[in-house]
Design goal:
The protein is α/β, with parallel strands linked by helices and about 425 residues long. The chain folds into 2 domains: about 200 residues, FAD/NAD(P)-binding domain; about 160 residues, D-Amino Acid Oxidase, subunit A, domain 2 (D-Amino Acid Oxidase, Chain A, domain 2, 2-Layer Sandwich). Helices cover about 30% and strands about 25% of the residues. The strands form 3 sheets. Strands 1, 2, 8, 9, 10, 11, 17 and 18 form an 8-stranded mixed beta sheet that branches. An 8-stranded mixed beta sheet has the order 5-6-4-13-14-15-12-16. Strands 3-7 form a two-stranded antiparallel ribbon. It is globular.
């Protein structure tokens, strides 16, 4: 870079643009709304956007206790896919993937979608048989998925180690070519700007401290910025969903756990696909800036802390270097944690609650980001019509009393 280029870059960085419009307003909360969404992450903002766009609801507020997208939306590893085993999951995640594929145009905001493919590795005969079963089930639902042998894996990811002389050799993999990554911040910002343009009030630094419930019906919320009346309230707060539900006297069948991730120093492009291994418990992709984005499973203990334990980091580094020995000298730049809420069957809760006018969207565990637009689209229908859409009807609270669980632990065995 020339001296002139450096000077010009610095000048532009320091320049003040007083006439640049804000991407969305920052209003004070009004005394009352038709619908209040609690949680200013991707799911909450998508719900507000689709309520306004698809159902004509105009008097909506999104309340966020911190800053927009500062929770799990800004702390995940940005992977998108729809290769789930059970029909119920496959349909919901495929709806989300289809919406993702047109989301930049829909929102007029570049979400940096990169459909580079998602590889799930098999390391033993059981993995191969289970993976083959999943691929066939996925394809029966009209979703793309295919099996690769070790040489096919090497062709997709030339830097991976396919030697048989390691503890967990790669015997094959499944591949969803339409899977990939998107910019998590851009998804939140795009939905925020589009929702704001349709009249949605996005209120940041507004913590909900209580829910007003009278005769088993929600009447409003108590917040750090005053009391707000509401005809309907949607709770979309990820790891803190159980805390909010308890304000209405509800006990949810979920647990909150820390989930860690980290990024390396930037390097030249070496990884064309997203690579996951449930057996050795690591997954990674390469960002547009060249950083390796690396994750593993959840910490075993319950916590609301946005940090994790060293044991998880140590395990994922060992797994990473077995798969990619050439990464051994990379330096890690930063590490962070999020809070995931996990249901007993590793599937979400999206629907009504026993409290009239109160709706909940939670329990996505480690798979929330990939579902963002589909979750918001279905949840908006549920709130507007006071009944679930066919896509989220299987994911109601009632399944825990009827026993109609949707066991997706195999798809979520490693956090992604």
């Amino acid at each position: 870079m020339t001296r002139y280029s450096i000077f010009r870059l610095a000048r532009n960085a320091l320049a003040y643009r007083p006439n640049w419009p804000r991407a969305w307003r920052s209003p004070d909360p009004r005394p009352a709304y038709d619908v209040v969404i609690v949680g200013g992450g991707g799911h909450g903002l998508a719900t507000a956007y689709y309520l306004a766009k698809e159902h004509g609801v105009s008097n909506i507020a999104v309340l966020e206790k911190g800053w927009l997208g500062g929770g799990n939306t800004g702390r995940n590893t940005t992977i998108i896919r729809s290769n789930y085993l059970w029909d119920e999951s496959a349909h919901l995640y495929e709806k989300a993937l289809q919406l993702y594929e047109g989301l930049s145009r829909e929102l007029n905001f570049n979400i940096m979608l990169s459909q580079r493919g998602v590889l799930n590795l098999a390391h033993n005969e059981h993995d191969l048989k289970e993976m083959s079963r999943r691929v066939r089930a996925i394809r029966l639902n009209g979703i793309d998925s295919e099996m690769l042998d070790p040489q096919g894996v090497k062709a997709e990811v030339p830097v991976i180690n396919i030697s048989r002389q390691v503890r967990y050799p790669i015997l094959g993999a499944s591949l969803q070519r339409r899977g990939g990554v998107a910019r998590h911040d851009a998804v939140a910002w795009g939905f925020a700007r589009a929702a704001d343009a349709r009249g949605v009030d996005i209120v940041q630094n507004c913590e909900v401290t209580g829910l007003d419930v009278v005769n088993s019906r929600v009447r409003g919320l108590r917040t750090s910025r005053g009391t707000i009346a509401a005809r309907k309230v949607g709770l979309v707060a990820a790891g803190h969903s159980s805390v909010l539900a308890a304000m209405a006297g509800l006990r949810l069948p979920i647990e909150s756990h820390p989930l860690q991730a980290m990024v390396s120093e930037p390097i030249k492009p070496v990884l064309n696909s997203v690579v996951m291994s449930n057996t050795v418990h690591v997954y990674l992709s390469q960002s547009d800036k060249g950083e390796l984005v690396i994750g593993a499973g959840i910490d075993g203990y319950n916590s609301y802390a946005q940090r994790g334990s060293f044991q998880i980091i140590e395990g994922q580094m060992g797994a990473l270097l077995e798969l990619f020995p050439s990464f051994s000298r990379l330096r890690m730049l930063r590490q962070w944690g999020g809070i995931v809420d996990v249901c007993p069957d590793a599937s979400p809760i999206v629907g009504k609650t026993p409290v009239e006018g109160l709706y909940i969207n939670c329990g996505w565990g480690t798979g929330g980001f990939k579902a963002t637009p589909g979750s918001g689209w279905a949840f908006a229908h549920t709130i507007a019509q006071d009944r679930p859409h066919a896509l989220n009807a299987p994911f109601t609270l009632e399944r825990f009393s009827t026993g109609a669980l949707i066991d997706e632990h195999g798809a979520a065995a490693v956090a992604h």
